[in-house]
Amino acid sequence: MNSNLCFVCKTIYSQVYFKSDEVHACIVTCGGLCPGLNTVIREIVCGLHYMYGVSKIIGIDGGYMGFYSKNTVTLTPKVVNDIHKRGGTVLGTSRGGHDTSKIVDSIQDRGINQVYVIGGDGTQKGAAVIYEEVRRRGLKVSVAGIPKTIDNDIPVIDRSFGFDTAVEEAQRAINAAHVEAESTENGIGVVKLMGRYSGFIAMYATLASRDVDCCLIPESPFFLEGKGGLFQFIRKRLKENGHMVIVIAEGAGQDLLTESMQSMGQQDASGNKQLQDVGFWISHRIKVHTFAIRADFGLTVMIVADPTYMIRAIPGNASDNVYCTLLAQSAVHGAMAGYTGFTCGPVNGRHSYIPFNVSIALSLSLSPSRIGMK
């Protein structure tokens, strides 16, 4: 068995572990919304049906807890035919609710032997636990992950689906903030974008827009006061141009928020640290600062935009739809070949199967398991 990280799809197409009439597949979506979710669902269903003749495919309603608390949804090519044109996920989603024993009990009771899990880091960690429990029980079940995060911050893989759409839509918010700021004397437009731990959306949207004066991201610390600080730069730009646009990722500047505003390490249901509204905070600080020095250039007008939910809820664009198709079909080929405990995605341009423990721990030392093999 190949021990390298990358398993090129063509090397496994010739081996099909599951018989089509014996496959009972399920699909579950977890975590936050992301453009392209419905496309992935559609292409898993169509891939299983048209490429392998699989007819028994169900959707788990409402995330992980749907395995044991809700009814399933029967999925056929006809049912999913047009869902890629809609945002969100037709299966519903949720955070948390991961009771491993109940989930695997449901998988076993329903006779499911292929599980396709679509979600981000927390979801993939949950999938890894499910895989370990399935393995412990000796079940012949393939557990395949399709990585999802709009922030494009999943380790190892080149990019995540929904990112291109998010950047494209973020530019609309930036353009609106720029028009508002430019139309007002001393106007300052602040656009807060997604990016809990990384600023890919903020930075790419800034580079594509050309209307942004300052981009603040979690990877690059900044300060407000003194020489070289944000306030000094704001004064400079307002004197030069009479307006400016600031883009800030949601995770930027969290260390600058006062203790009274911080969430004191609280976490959401997915285990992510709860972040304070840095857009509101920074606009308030800028207002206070510019009001104190208003004699220099007059009063400023703040325009604050937070298009987060508008971006998350739209369908994928053409580029993301093509990419979602490749991810979904890659997962289907891997599962049908009998691989399990993996997430799929391009690594250095080659579509690969990455073991859960590698994608989670950022270690490249192990390879996916094969059903029926030690």
TrEMBL record:
- UniProt organism field: Linum tenue
Q: What cofactors does this protein use?
A: Mg(2+)
Domain Phosphofructokinase spans what residues?
A: 26-333
Q: A biological process (GO) annotation for this entry?
A: fructose 6-phosphate metabolic process
Query: GO molecular function terms here?
Result: 6-phosphofructokinase activity; ATP binding; metal ion binding
Q: Which UniProt keywords apply?
A: Allosteric enzyme, ATP-binding, Glycolysis, Kinase, Magnesium, Metal-binding, Nucleotide-binding, Transferase
Keyword Ribosomal protein on entry:
no
Q: Tell me, what does this protein do in biology? A: Catalyzes the phosphorylation of D-fructose 6-phosphate to fructose 1,6-bisphosphate by ATP, the first committing step of glycolysis.
GO CC annotations?
cytoplasm
Which InterPro entries does this entry report, sorted A to Z?
A: ATP_PFK, PFKA, Phosphofructokinase_dom, PKF_sf, PyroP-dep_PFK_TP0108
Q: Which PANTHER family match?
A: ATP-DEPENDENT 6-PHOSPHOFRUCTOKINASE 1 (PTHR45770)
- The highest taxon in the source lineage is Eukaryota
SUPFAM superfamilies in the record, alphabetically? Phosphofructokinase (SSF53784)
Instruction: Specify the protein name.
Output: Phosphofructokinase domain-containing protein
